[in-house]
Amino acid sequence: MLTSSLSASRERPSNQGQTLITIQNVEKKFVTHSGDIVTALSNVNLDIRENEFVSVVGPSGCGKTTLLRILAGLSWVTSGVVKFERDTLQGPRSDVGIVFQQALLLPWNTVLDNVLLSPHLKNDRSESTRRRAEGLLSFMGLAEFTRRYPFELSGGMQQRVAICRALMREPKILLMDEPFGALDAMTRESLNVELMRVCAEEKKTVLFITHSIPEAVLLGDRVVVMSPRPGRISEIIDVDIARPRSLKTMADTRFGEICDQIRTIFGSEAPTASAL
Amino acid sequence: MKNGGLSLISHRYQMLGLAAILLALWECICRYGHVSPLVLPAPSGVAVRLYAMFSDGTLWPHLAVTLTEVLVGLGVGITSGLATGALVSLVPAIERLVYPYLVALQTIPKVAVAPLLVIWFGYGLTSKVVITALICFFPILVSVISGFHATDRDQLDMMKAYGATALQTLVRLRIPSAMVLIFAGLEIASVLAVIGTIVGEFVGAQAGLGYLIMTYNFNLDVAGVFAVLVILSAIGMTLHGITRFAGRRYIFWIRREPAAVMAH
What we know:
The complex is a heterodimer of chains A (276) and B (264). Helix content of chain A is 33%, strand content 24%. Chain A is α/β, with parallel strands linked by helices and 276 residues long. Chain A folds into two domains: 4-95 and 171-268, P-loop containing nucleotide triphosphate hydrolases (Rossmann fold); 107-170. In chain A, strands 6-7-8-3-9-10 form a six-stranded mixed sheet, with helices on both faces. A four-stranded antiparallel sheet of chain A has the order 2-1-4-5, with helices on one face. In chain A, a hairpin with a 5-residue loop joins strand 1 (19-31) and strand 2. Residues 1-14 of chain A have low confidence and may be disordered. With 264 residues, chain B is mainly α. Helix content of chain B is 81%, strand content 0%. Chain B is built from ten helices and no strands. Chain B has helices at residues 4-32, 43-55, 59-90, 92-107, 110-121, 125-149, 153-161, 166-203, 209-218, 222-250. The longest helix of chain B is centred in the last third of the chain and has 38 residues, at 166-203. The radius of gyration of chain B is 23 Å and the shape is globular. The interface between A and B is medium-sized, with 21 and 20 residues.
């Protein structure tokens, strides 16, 4: 757990403001098919501030997706409190944007209609909204594809559309669940650069889940390191590398040091051969 | 994919070529193999008989009766199948209560019920429409139910996270994704419809292509029977082609391979 006083001493972008999301003593238990109780999250405490990019990294089964589902309003805490600004979180909110591992576009709708999903659900079919969607798509380099259907697009392009769809809600926070995990390494890197550009432009708060340590460090202001069984936060690390960052940042010494620091955390918790 | 069109055309020619060879073989066996035309008529004989049926007008009233029975029966079967399927899928209580009975009903061979239906609904159009509708009903029902069950869980989560109401999720996600399987059900039903009508006509009728087959058979007019079979298969292929075409237009996002059995 990291208190705000500790992180305040570190270098961070000046535009970060108030706490947007407060997660206090959150515990989540599931009952499996065989009737066993599994603790997916235990004693999770985290504050997410406005305009902050928080990466969450950890091996599978560490509860990082459960945490995101709780913030998205798709799952409930067993105990503890999740507050959005001052309100306790109760179900999906209209000011939260979410991007899943799969693009999950509606295959029978055009790219533009997919991006317009949120306004359409609110019966907003105005010209200005449509222009904003087209603006977002061209900002993402998809201007020529607005009338196409998702199956005509590559996986990386589909995920860009999904990001546009999430941004259309003008979210206060963007929740991203391993959004580039299903893509090849090259596409993944270019989308990382793209995402940094979007965040710089749109001033978004982001919670970004990944299992790639370099990706977490490259994108994040802070990296939340999680461990499995039970899912918990083992450490929160500040990434004191100045922005704007690029793929060249990955060649920095400091970048390597932080990545190593995170690997050490995983290494110290994994059962070693000598322990057996 | 680049020369897909070309290979498709050459594939068509190969298929037609095979048909021509088989027909020629059949013709030779009948002509030079001393096969009685009472057992197996030559293709040329069938063609002559077919032409005669069209030109002397014997075919038209029977064709009209059968087509009406097939289309009305198919229509009733599709409508009731869609309605029941939607009800069963969308109201869980009904699914628990009614579905076991529907499955039990499905296990009864519809052909075996046909004589009863003729007693109940008479020798006219109604009994054939009922049999056809019954036969078409179940594939539609099953396709609707499994179609609704096939909605992607992640997509449902996505709609929920984006604040969609239950009705919006139904209209924007569940119905469109069910259409893939529903069209598969429609294809099956369109083929079964002809079978249903002919079974009904065999059991008891005063007109129709099934009735015509029974009459020709009784008179040992085997070429006539073959001629009617050609017409029946043309009706089946046309119906199947229409549903398949409609399906491909409607569910354009699925570029599926042709089904193993139904492909032509």
